[in-house]
């Protein structure tokens, strides 16, 4: 069985959970005609954190040779960020600390939040648009990037200082969809390697406050769209065979 399968990952599942689910279903079916089968190749083309939802693109069988190439595809996300708070991990999984002050653009430095108006939608839209284009971005400490052979998130969880070098990314488009303080929703299409958690924190900084990514949903990878994806509860050999792209 060879091809590409689109799955809508639910919150609480890891990307590997989805891979393991599909691998188990396919292996069970193939063993009916090949009882000695030991392994079925299934790989994903880009992880999603457990707290995120959305499109996982799986490569099955000989299509796993395409994984490395497909990881580099552009991706589209629906994002919710929360202003006026920080997270130890940059997302809702970390320790959340409310910040009661905003940074003023004047020489006053930090002043009480009660004395500053919430940013307008026009201001937020202007800030979002300033991030469009090619730029350097520093990945979050809680990421899967390897530092001296170890995952950055393992070092961060152990309380060790993690220094990651900025990387070149491209934000192709970014658009405000809703704003009601303290939550801000936007959609963005970005290059591979873009960390939305870092983008959320950078947006907060540019707005003169703090921010963290409170919700994330991936809706598109290259030309693959979430509307075509199978729900995890609907995964079975019949649905996989029917929806497999070759």
Q: Can you describe what's shown?
A:
The chain is of the alpha+beta class and about 250 residues long. It folds into two domains: about 5-70 and about 225-245, Pseudouridine synthase; about 75-220, Pseudouridine synthase. It is built from six helices and 16 strands. The protein has helices at about 15-30, 65-70, 120-130, 150-155, 195-205, 235-245, and strands spanning about 5-10, 40-45, 55-60, 75-85, 85, 95-100, 100-105, 110, 135, 145, 150, 165-180, 185-190, 210-220, 225, 230. Strands 1, 2, 3, 4, 9, 12, 13, 14, 15 and 16 form a ten-stranded mixed beta sheet that branches. The protein has a two-stranded antiparallel ribbon with strand order 5-6. Strands 7-8 form a two-stranded antiparallel sheet. A hairpin with a 2-residue loop joins strand 10 and strand 11 (about 150). It is elongated. The chain starts with a strand and ends with a helix. The model has no long low-confidence stretch (mean pLDDT about 85).
